[in-house]
Design goal:
- The protein has three helices and five strands, in the order H-E-E-E-H-H-E-E.
- By secondary structure, it is of the alpha+beta class.
- It has one domain: HIT family, subunit A (2-Layer Sandwich), CATH 3.30.428.
- Strands 1-2-3-5-4 form a five-stranded antiparallel β-sheet, covered by helices on one side.
- A hairpin with a 7-residue loop joins strand 2 and strand 3.
- The protein is globular, with a radius of gyration of 14 Å.
- The N and C termini lie far apart (34 Å).
- Bound molecules: guanosine-5'-monophosphate (5GP).
């Protein structure tokens, strides 16, 4: 598979420090920050620092270390925010990829949303 990464995407600029962000947590390989246009009381974006376009790119090409770091951080944030079902009321994780997934920013990211009921994922 060949993926083309646009180094001018907004999250690449955040990672280079060219535009500000509200950081929630950071590790060697991943960054978590607040979404600029939150869709719920808690809305955090988790991104790898590596140049991966989407979920399948990251899952297939990232190192074990990067993948472990990313998912450990994403899971920890739900606890830090107090929204883990273990003590809290739960949350939703969303990963949009490509045109049909309606992905706006072409740098892999997960959305963590919580703080109120998210409703059904898709209308039945
Ligand atoms: P996508 O549609 O690609 O899954 O989601 C992209 C998300 O990035 C959107 O929820 C949008 O609000 C967020 N976003 C876009 N530009 C910025 C920005 O400059 N800073 C932050 N913190 N979030 C952004």
């Amino acid at each position: 598979m060949s993926y083309t990464y646009d180094s001018q995407n907004i999250f690449a600029k955040i990672l280079r420090g060219e535009i500000p962000n509200s950081t929630v947590a950071e590790t060697d390989h991943s960054l978590a920050f607040k979404d600029i246009n939150p869709g719920a009381p808690h809305h955090v974006l988790v991104i790898p620092k590596g140049a991966y376009v989407n979920f399948d790119h990251f899952s297939g090409a990232a190192s074990d270390t990067e993948i472990l770091d990313f998912y450990r951080l994403a899971g920890k944030i739900t606890n830090d925010l107090g929204i883990s079902p273990d003590g809290g009321l739960g949350y939703r994780v969303i990963g949009n990829s490509g045109e049909h997934g309606v992905q706006d920013v072409p740098h892999f990211h997960l959305h963590i949303l919580g703080g109120h009921s998210m409703g059904r994922m898709l209308p039945k």
